[in-house]
């Protein structure tokens, strides 16, 4: 009897594994079909792919050239140090490192002449835009969590003023487009309080995301059984202490998945600040398109960079969820 059960179990297990491999194979075939469809569509519009144009905007390995700021005379000593003595009396230009030198000792240079160049490798425009997107998202998330936590506590408050004020904030922010809010913050509040575009972008993203985080935290707090608060108060804890040490830790654990989703949305929403000339990844992509004319390649690259960023965040949150689940 036991042998028959084992054979039956092994047979079901092998059957499931075979089915899984078939579904994985079907998935790969579907991806290949999608890739071929995209390639065929590009052939129909007679587009020549030039991915080599995008590479310098990711990693810039072009030489850094040094130009003459004014007219002057060049002198080069035995150590290879280049000194340009300007005619107008400005401090001398001293170059102690150069891979290529385009002048000789005693030459007279004019304003704008190339004196030397240094081979280097630095971040291109797209990677700089990606870093700006990350910076915007992290700073905005920090303030959004604070705003959301305060608004959530006001939403569950017994004080009608606090509750109504928080309700009004959440409804107005969630009921209007982020793009409109960015324009209002930058052109109206920015003019009143003399905000630069970066600060205005952070403010708009923080207030917008804070409204959604407020609802996430509120639902998390209200999902905790009322007995938790009653037990904490019966132990002599004040309401703020019970909320801080008993309710909020449990609520944050329950709201981690939707909070992670909101963070990913924030990363994508940050692309809208490009309308007020903040050079994030999206605006950097527009600048590269204007300079390289590689429209499809650039936007596919921008999409891939966003995907890498959001996938990394998603993977990190999944690891945190597993750790929290193991600690229960």
UniProtKB/TrEMBL annotation:
One of its GO terms (molecular function) is transmembrane transporter activity. GO terms for cellular component: ATP-binding cassette (ABC) transporter complex. The chain crosses the membrane at residues 21-39, 130-154, 166-189, 298-317. CDD domains: TM_PBP2. Its main location: membrane. It is found in: Cell inner membrane; Cell membrane. It is a multi-pass membrane protein. Residues 130-317 form the ABC transmembrane type-1 domain. Part of the binding-protein-dependent transport system for glutamine; probably responsible for the translocation of the substrate across the membrane. Belongs to the binding-protein-dependent transport system permease family. HisMQ subfamily. This is Putative glutamine transport system permease protein GlnP. It comes from Moritella yayanosii.
């Amino acid at each position: 009897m036991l042998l028959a059960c084992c054979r039956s179990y092994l047979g079901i297990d092998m059957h499931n594994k075979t089915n899984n491999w078939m579904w994985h194979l079907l998935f790969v075939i579907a991806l290949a079909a999608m890739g071929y469809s995209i390639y065929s569509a590009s052939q129909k519009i007679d587009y020549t792919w030039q991915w080599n144009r995008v590479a310098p905007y990711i990693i810039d390995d072009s030489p850094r050239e040094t130009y003459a700021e004014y007219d002057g005379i060049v002198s080069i000593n035995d150590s290879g140090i280049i000194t340009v003595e300007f005619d107008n009396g400005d401090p001398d230009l001293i170059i102690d490192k150069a891979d290529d030198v385009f002048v000789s000792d005693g030459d007279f240079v004019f304003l704008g002449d190339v004196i030397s160049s240094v081979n280097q490798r630095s971040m291109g425009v797209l990677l700089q835009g990606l870093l700006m997107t990350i910076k915007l998202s992290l700073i905005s998330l920090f303030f959004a969590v604070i705003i959301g936590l305060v608004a959530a506590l006001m939403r569950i408050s017994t004080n009608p003023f606090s509750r109504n004020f928080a309700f009004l904030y959440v409804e107005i922010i969630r009921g209007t487009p982020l793009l409109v809010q960015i324009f209002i913050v930058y052109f109206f509040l920015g003019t009143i309080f003399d905000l630069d575009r970066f600060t205005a972008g952070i403010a708009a993203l923080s207030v917008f995301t804070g409204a959604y985080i407020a609802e996430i935290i509120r639902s998390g707090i209200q999902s905790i059984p009322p007995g938790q608060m009653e037990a904490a108060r019966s132990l002599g804890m004040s309401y703020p202490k019970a909320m801080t040490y008993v309710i909020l830790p449990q609520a944050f654990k329950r709201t981690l998945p939707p909070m992670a989703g909101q963070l990913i949305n924030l990363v994508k929403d940050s692309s809208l600040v490009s309308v007020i000339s903040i050079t994030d990844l999206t605006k950097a992509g527009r600048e590269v398109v204007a300079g390289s004319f590689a429209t499809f390649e650039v936007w596919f690259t921008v999409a891939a960079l966003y995907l890498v960023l959001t996938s990394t965040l998603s993977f990190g949150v999944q690891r945190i969820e597993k750790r929290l689940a193991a600690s229960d």
